[in-house]
Amino acid sequence: MIAGYRAAELEAALETELQNAAAIAEPLRAQLAYCLLGGGKRLRGGLCLAFCELFGGSAADALPLACALEMIHAYSLVHDDLPCMDDDATRRGKPSAHVFFGEANAILIGDALQALAFSVSAHAREEGRQAVADAALRMVAGQFAEGMHAAQDPASLREIYAQKTGALYWAAAVSGAHAARCTPEQAHIAEIYGSAFGFLFQIADDCMDRAQDEQCGKQTLLTVIGIDKLAAEARDKLEEILQLLQPYHGEAAVWLRVLIEKTVECIH
Ligand code: IPE
Ligand code: IPE
Ligand code: MG
Ligand code: MG
Q: Where are the domains of the chain?
């Protein structure tokens, strides 16, 4: 997979937001920095910035929303790794938050990152803020549904993917487009791209985790549908997205094309 779009700018903005959060003191600030800064690919924030630029805005217009998306994503990972959830000891190549700071602090780090996300994006355009808030809720709904272990059929698994992973990508694309004061047609392109990319990203992630999932008997779309059908579906979605992006040129358009192409290459 490729690196985020304007990742250095986004990283600097995240660091500044953390420094400017007056309600937070050490050592909580350092613990938030450990979980938020350095290490993430910044794809959600990157998608937000790229869609803003694609539709004529500047990265600065979308930076608060991009920061909010990365904060919500970082919080979701801290909670996802908890012993009561996936019980993962490492994240982004480092000990997980609960291993390093203890379980109670990890819960609070997640809470703080989510609150900070809504604080930093409070003055962004209404449509973008609403998309991010909806996605934050849908992500939790997806994690909840997955935790119930109820879904084994393809339709339910697709819905869980759309919620737990797809929603934040959908919101990234849509909120970035709105930061550029997009037209309804442009908002539609962002919606299609964001939802399709979210799906493809989770399938690519399943492909990477295949051996581990098979070993512990976890049902994923990959185990239920099989790689051949999923790879064919991924190629169709890629074609559809490339068609949509055809009229667009420039740095953001190139990045959006390459991102989805590289992701589909991982589905085999
Ligand atoms: C990991 O997402 C969680 C999933 C939704 C599968 P990323 O792979 O984008 O995580 P970072 O931000 O780059 O660490
Ligand atoms: C994480 O999904 C999705 C969210 C945190 C919303 P996974 O549990 O499949 O991702 P990894 O494998 O821990 O990164
Ligand atoms: Mg999980
Ligand atoms: Mg996990």
A: 7-265
pTM for the model: 0.97
* Residue 41 Cβ contacting ligand 1 at under 6 Å: yes
Fold of the domain built from segment(s) 7-265: Farnesyl Diphosphate Synthase (1.10.600)
CB-side neighbour CA atoms (13 Å) of 102: 4
pLDDT in tens, 29-62: 999 999 999 889 999 999 999 999 999 999 999 9
Relative to the CA of 42, which ligand 1 atom is closest? 12
Q: Report pLDDT digits (tens) over 223-266.
A: 999 999 999 999 999 999 999 999 999 999 999 999 999 999 99
DSSP-assigned letters across all residues of 100-126: HH-HHHHHHHHHHHHHHHHHHTTTS-H
Q: Ligand 3: distance of its center to the CA of 86 in Å?
A: 5
With the most atoms of ligand 2 within 8 angstroms of its CB, the residue from 165, 220, 223 to mutate is: 165
